[in-house]
Amino acid sequence: MRFGPVWPLQTPTPTPTEAATEVATEVATDIGGLLPFSIPVWVANIGRSLIVIGLAIVVSRLLVRLLGRRVARQFRRPSLTRTVLRGIRVSVYVFALLTILNIYGLQLGDIALSVTVFTAVVGVVLAPILGSYISGVFLLADQPYEIGDMIELADTGQQGFVEDITLRHTKVFTLDNTFLVIPNGEIRQRDVVNYSAEDSRTRLSLDVLVTYESDIAVARTLIEAAAREVDNVISGGPDIRVGAARYPASPTVYINNFADHGVLLTLRYWVTEPYKLLAVRSKVQTNVWQRLEDADVEIAYPHSHLYFDDTSGEMNVSLNNGFDAIDGIDRTRTATGDSPVPPNQDPDDLADE
Question: Residue 307 gets which letter from DSSP?
Fold first, then answer.
């Protein structure tokens, strides 16, 4: 007996979506077998998604607790430590999101294609946000300021403490008890003064103009003593180093300039806390004023003295408005701007009267 050609039976290969649907159907059927009622597939998918979310929250907190101290010892910078810990949390949540999408039948290739198309469509919208993130990376690398530093925005004069540094923005807690949230792309283009980068001590100066008749030596001694009496002013100690230079720690008065109206004295002193600069400056100026008021020292102010000697001459000035022929009145006026001189009368006779 002869047989014809035997063709193997081929079953169609299910697509990924169909396979995921079959798996979900089996799970629902198995669960339904344990209960007296059946559970829809979408309810089972929601349950699995909630389990994944719960595990992601627990795992992220556990990893942060276990790795927090090690990361802090490794980087020794609060901003980098917070950024790394945020990265760990985000990684766990991204993995959980991919798992949830896989539950609903979306494969990694489909997700990558969708993200690519979405990024190409909204690229213009995301450009500023991506710029802020890139600027945040540069801020963390350049270290212009750190969490806890007191900074000042030079263009606006706002002062405050750096509360937080992220890849997207910098959060500043101002001295007016308000918050400033500045995108990193914007703050990198502004001049920022850091008062506590290396040393929290800040030097201030005060100009005092005294008259030439004052006792300059006494004035310098009184001004220095007035600054030492104020709290938060460094009264003495070793010289303070700034770069390669060293400056006296105690208040010091220098003769700055011989000005037009007096001798310009400049007081330089150091303040221990940068957030009390205005209060300390006010107290120093108050003490200086009280000290100099009771001493033989006079604070100069702009004034002028006019001196006349025997060489000063006398000149008579008369003005004529050119209307004598109209009304017949002589419009001649004296140098002091008196009323017009009557006609046919000598101005000198009026001066004698």
Answer: -
What is the pTM (predicted TM-score) of this model?
Answer: 0.52
Distance CA 170, CA 181 (A): 6
Low-confidence ranges of the chain (pLDDT < 50): 1, 6-11, 16-17, 19-21, 23-29, 32, 333-337, 350, 353
- Residue carrying structure tokens 């006019």: 306
Return the bridge partners of 206, or none. Answer: 267
Find tokens 């990024």 and name the residue.
119
C-alpha triplet 247, 251, 255: angle, nearest 5°: 85
Number of H helices, E strands in the chain: 10, 10
Quickly list H helices, 35-170.
41-75, 78-103, 108-121, 123-142
Give yes or no for a contact between 239 and 186, defined as CB atoms under 8 angstroms apart: no
16, two tokens: 């990924």
Beta strands of 213-313 (E only): which ranges?
240-242, 245-247, 252-258, 263-271
- Rg of the chain taking only CA atoms, in angstroms: 42
Cα gap 80→71, rounded to integer Å = 9
Decide: helix, strand or coil at residue 306: coil
Phi, psi (deg, nearest 5) at residue 80: -70, -40
Length of the chain: 353
Which residues are within 8 A (CB) of 121 and not within 5 positions of it... i.e. 6 or more apart?
A: none
Q: Which two tokens stand for residue 323?
A: 């209307």
**CA proximity to 158, closest of 136, 176, 181:** 176
pLDDT in tens, 17-51: 454 445 444 444 455 455 555 667 777 778 888 88
Contact 222/292 with Cβ under 8 angstroms? yes
Angle at 126 between CA 122 and CA 128, to 5 degrees: 145
* Cβ neighbourhood burial of 204 (10 Å; 0-12, 13-18, 19+): middle
Structure tokens at 106: 């979306």
Question: What's the confidence (pLDDT) of residue 346?
Answer: 56
